[in-house]
Amino acid sequence: MIDSHVHFWNYHPVKDAWITDDMKILQADFTPDELEIELLKNGIAGCVAVQADQSEQETAFLLALAQKYSFIRGVVGWIDLQNENLPERLAVFSENKKIKGWRHIVQAEPKGFLSSASFLRGIAQLGHFNHTYDILIHRNQLEEAIALVEKFPEQRFIVDHMAKPDIKGNEGRVEWQKAMKTLATHQNVYCKTSGMVTEAHWTDWKYNDLKYYLEVVFEHFSIDRIMFGSDWPVCKLAATYTETKQIVAQYVNQLTDLQRKMVFELTAKECYQL
Q: CATH code at 156?
């Protein structure tokens, strides 16, 4: 099994200012040694490390960890997609076979970021290196994401955290469902079942709170475009690693053995070419 979405960091209060005081459990170092214990306990053979900081130093940090720990099968790093020297920087990072794709924290960007000429020019470069792009957005940015994927039908895109629906308050649920249905019509778009618990009530979520959102994803995305991701250690705000895995395991229990294998292994391997 593969976990398609984990993070590592050496905590620094300035660099990691997004980890506010209501997230004190995350104000610590999170290392591969710590994650490996959870992976082994849950029968997970490997993972994809995803950027949490917007710097090339972050990418280099994750690649160094992947060099040391073989269970880190791939890295989704950060690179300045709007920089004119992007092709040269992509070429440099592509020399490391563990680099699989890129992500920008678009949820923090103003409206129109995904349609800006400089960003689109950057996305257009990724295909030359066979790299993926992880879409990290808030649910209110789904229409922009749809417009983006329409422009690049050959580019592999992955929606992180199911585009962050409001599981806690159930606001905009119908609009989210409609937008996800449209997004799923694009066969080059994948979806991770990550980040659900942190969009729910951190202290008293229940499986049934999450089930509707899983149903939407599994109804509209074909099974070969859905992958398990824990979002460790961020998931610790609301759930243990085992609980996070069990949510998806419980839902896919209704599926065939091959379909479960796709969600927990084969889709991530194919998408990220692990």
A: 3.20.20.140
